[in-house]
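for ur thesis appendix - Amidohydrolase-related domain-containing protein. copy paste whatever u need, i formatted it the way the template wanted (i think)
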Amino acid sequence: MPGLVNAHFHSPGNFMKGCLEGMPLELFMLYEVPPLAGDSAKGGLAAQADRFTYVRTLLGAVEMLRRGITTVHDDAYHVPIVTHTGLDAMLQAYADAGIRATVAIDQPNIVEYDKYPFLRDLLPPGERAHMDAAPLQSEAELLAAYHHLITHWHGAAGGRLRAAVSCSAPQRVTPSYFRALSALSKQHDLPFNIHILETRLQRVLGQEVFGESLVKYVHRLGLLDERMMVIHAIWVDDEDIALLAASGCTVAHNPVCNLRLGSGIMPWRKLSDAGVPLCLGTDEMNTDDTTNLWAVTKLAGMVHSLADADCRRWPQAEEVLHAAIRGGARAIRRHADLGQLQPGFRADLVLLDLDTHAFTPLNDLRRQLVFCEDGSSVRYTIVDGRVVFEDGRIAGIDEKALRAEARALHAAFQAVAARQSGDAERLAPYYRAMLERAQAVALR
Ligand SMILES: [Zn+2]
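the 3d part is after this line
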């Protein structure tokens, strides 16, 4: 079969599997992208920051290849700032792994408290001052990082590696930077990563601060287009769905992450009926805890039964597989040559063993791929015609040494994470107050 496409992923979460209990996105992000992290926050990792990035990225790539994921779309954030050598480390890891990777730079340029409703007023002046002092890169610095990514890595490794752009979310960037990213996306035909309406609080933010839904805001700026991959789209209304459909964008569905953070359930059938192409992602290892897209297909095949009493409107196995393969190819602007077993398409293939429990006995191949397979039947993973996983081993990678190095780096990582958790716990009461205030706002 064609390889799976993990259409939404943040590799910087790769060391955080199992780190956190479930919590709302707004609290979770205090741990994921600590808003007070300065250079000193890197602690024992500072001297080996790029090696850490390399090992962290490679670890996730290897896990994906073993499960038959041939392409990843990495919306990579950088704490506290993006560096050119950090980008090189990340892309080199993907080059060495042999996976197909499209990589964006997910770096907001708005001060932390202005990304949310009510937070500026809820925070004591001392915490606001800490946030004002946190490193924030200028539009020029961020565009220079993109220039580096595009000139050094876009089309590298025989075309396996590509660049994408990301604004993270519309409320996290200035309109000026947002427009510059859109221009870059148009100029090079790059996918544009944007998280929109992941949580109810973001719906309130649109209503109270922007005076319109965040989908409408992006549309009004003239930036909602077919290169966009809109991530989550959970709290969308019918007008938002019509705008998404008219734009030609793709929507990335990440049901494991959405349940882990209690965000809600994306309206699969409404989006699909409107003609919006859907793709699937694991999001990241601090909210999915694995890179297992098979688990995502299974949940996508089940969770929508809660949203609709009519079982004829629940996603069918064929649709779910289409999202996991062709939807992902579309999201990275590769629907013309990825995700089909057909002349003219790139040879990104997976061979599964049918002599396994998942397929014994064999009743319906597609349903058993969606509901029974967990990646353990994958015997060969082929990317761009090259066998990268065979006989239980990833070609050219000493996986035992990789895991040992990851464990060694983990000690320094934990020391940094512990300090940042202290900040998160101190800030959490203000974020909880914000969530409570937003919860009391009726949605219009
Ligand atoms: Zn995400």
